[in-house]
Amino acid sequence: MSILAKLTAFAITRFSWVITAVQGFWPGGEPDLRQAVYFANHTSNGDTILLWSVLPYSVRQRTRPVAAAEYWLNHPVKKFIGEQVFNCVLIQRDAEARTQDPIEQMVEALNDGSSLIIFPEGTRNTEPEMLPFKPGLFHLAEARPDVPLIPVWIENLNRVLPKGEVIPLPFICTVRFGDAMNRKPNEDKYAFLKRAEAAVKALAPEEARS
Amino acid sequence: MSGPYPDLMTLLVAVLAVLVTASTVGFVLARLKGADNPVIENLNARINAWWVMAIVLGLAFWWGRSGVVLLFAICSFAALREFVTLTNARRADTWMLAALFYIALPLQYWAVWTDWYGFMAIFIPVYVFLGMPILSALRGETDNFLIRVAEVQWAAMIAIYCVSYVPALLSLNIPGFEGQNILLIAFLVIVVQASDVLQYVWGKLLGKTRIAPRLSPSKTVEGFAGGVGSATLLGAFLWWITPFAFWQAGLMALVIALMGFFGGLVLSAVKRDRGVKDWGATIAGHGGFIDRLDSLIFAAPIFFHLIRFWWTV
């Protein structure tokens, strides 16, 4: 990382901490340091930042968020943050415009030893109920069955910056990690995705579960 | 500011001695009963957090007026954030909350910093009280309107207004006590926090009869009487840092300890209502900022106004 990227990363994580006092909670209290795929609920553009900032420094260095290329590449500042600061794996959501298969890109990153952050709902969700997961997570689990999949629940960030508002409001946010899971032998796509959804939902505080 | 330094230094040395003793006891207990005993672990986390709090407060005192105002402004910010996180505030309340965090809070502390009592004392109860519902109504969301507005007004009073009375003690003009007001803050903070700790200690040693089992299972009659009683005595023996006589200092300490106790009780009721155990997890072993500030929040305004009524010109 360049000095400028490091400074930007520091500024972004400090700022998000001032606004949200974010803390990460791991099962058993100790962070899981293995290479992993973190999959989380998605309610705000800041989700990536919060999840990333609560990871231990060494883990953060090799963790790459998977994000939409069309969002991160349409402005020079965003391009710098997306590529240099977060080292995102940028995928094309629009199938027509694709030059590379997103799953291939993610598997490549895993093969390089990186961890991934993905939001299997596929888009920012403004409803209280989580959206059904897209199959990407299943394909990753199939391609790299050895990499643990860690469910994550990000709480309250949708209140900090609701879609369409411009001023971030201070609310306490928490990032809750669950127990690592893997695809069971012969588990089909539907059953696996339902189980993954349930693992994320189980981390939500009671009133958010339905 | 040459006056308070000898007294303040004596006080700091005493606090240091208490903390060293506490850490030693914590260390010995951890050795005897095992460091992974949850009660001991929590005790030691609390003691360590006490060190940090004492050092931060000491640094603010050393910096002087600006340091104290800034420190409590930061406490207010953190407390307000904890409070609104537990409310029903939603998207339609964005303007109201933004105004509270980014306009009302700085204005209140600016008024405290510039010694403008006439503004500091009425800004939140009058202007903010009327302004909040206006801002919320302009967004047109009527669902739960009264509940949402009332919650945010409570948040403003508790987290901004009441907390700002601590640095406001610096602007009281007490004949013969000029330049030493920082000792009033030291007196208040020491009595309030000692009362909390002593209630905990007496409760752990002798506690049997619960005062409000549904609210706070750890509050007992024995802890309450022992804690408030010993904090009153402690306050009386601190008369030499205050403008009060010995018996007056004791009475003040009694009022502070009682208000502090009720502050803890009331804010526990709010927590129970919202189904949480702590206001946050920012201060290891203690919970959130409000968990540590609750008694100060109820004691500070009363302490301020009693002094203002009887001692100032």
Report what the structure shows.
The complex is a heterodimer of chains A (210) and B (313). Chain A has 210 residues and is α/β, with parallel strands linked by helices. Chain A has nine helices and seven strands, in the order H-E-E-H-H-E-H-H-E-H-E-H-E-H-E-H. Chain A has a seven-stranded mixed beta sheet with strand order 1-7-6-2-5-3-4, with helices on both faces. Chain B is mainly α. Chain B is globular and about 60 Å long. The two termini of chain B are 20 Å apart. The chains are: A alpha/beta (210), B mainly alpha (313). The interface between A and B is medium-sized, with 13 and 20 residues.
Structural class of chain A: alpha/beta
Helix-strand sequence of chain B:
HHHHHHHHHHH
| End-to-end C-alpha gap of chain A | 42 Å
Q: What portion of the residues of chain B fall into strands of 2 or more residues? A: under 5%
Mean pLDDT of chain B: 90
Number of self-contained structural domains of chain B: 3
Sheet having the most strands of chain A: 7 strands, mixed
pLDDT < 50 runs, ≥5 residues of chain A: none
Q: Total number of β-strand segments of chain A?
A: 7
Radius of gyration of chain A: 16 Å
Oligomer: heterodimer
Q: Rough shape of chain A?
A: globular
Structural class of chain B: mainly alpha
Mean pLDDT of chain A: 90
State the gist of this model:
Chain A is of the alpha/beta class. Chain A has 9 helices and 7 strands. A 7-stranded mixed beta sheet of chain A has the order 1-7-6-2-5-3-4, sandwiched between helices.
Features of this protein?
heterodimer; A: 210 residues; alpha/beta; seven-stranded mixed beta sheet; 15% strand; B: 313 residues; mainly alpha; 11 helices; globular
Chain-wise SSE layout:
The complex is a heterodimer of chains A (210) and B (313).
Chain A: H1 3-20, E1 23-25, E2 37-40, H2 47-54, H3 57-61, E3 63-68, H4 69-72, H5 76-85, E4 89-91, H6 102-111, E5 115-118, H7 136-143, E6 149-155, H8 157-160, E7 174-177, H9 189-201
Parallel strand pairs in A: 1-7, 2-5, 2-6, 3-4, 3-5
Antiparallel strand pairs in A: 6-7
Chain B: H1 4-33, H2 38-63, H3 65-85, H4 94-113, H5 117-120, H6 123-138, H7 145-168, H8 182-206, H9 221-237, H10 246-274, H11 289-310
